[in-house]
Design a protein that fits this description.
single chain; 166 residues; alpha/beta; Dihydrofolate Reductase, subunit A; four-stranded parallel β-sheet; three-stranded antiparallel β-sheet; 4 helices; 20% helix; 30% strand; globular
Amino acid sequence: MSLDGYLARENHSLDWLFGTEGEEETGYQDFYDGIDTILLGRSTYDQIAILSPDKFPYEDKECYVFSRTLKGSTEHVNFINEDIVGFTQSLKKKEGKRIWIVGGGAVLQPLLQAKLVDEFIIQITPVIIGRGIPMFVPGEQENELTLVDVRRYQQFAELHYIKKSV
């Protein structure tokens, strides 16, 4: 995200993200190998289709897209029309690796409200864009976290938090 907390510009552009020193060395592959399930909102899914029209970037993972209108599935994703919290609770009961929430405050906020997010790995780009699509949507979702690691990938800072034990 940008230093001021945005995932993308208001028009969904990520132009501010590219060309930052260290973008190719962010440990992404190790992170990606440690997950098996991806949750996306419909807007994020639509943007991925625009940015990567020739190849779905998560085709080797189980992908769920929360949508009010799209139903069924495609070759790479299953569209979910049910409650985000209930669906995620049932997913977390299954065997598997980590679940990754890919963009979208609309998906993240209800999961934060239900305290279902166990871990945050946030990479911060040294850019302030002023406005855009926020990572955290304002609301009643207070979660206490514990900082477990800080890494530097040239100009990127990575903060790793886990849910605080009660």
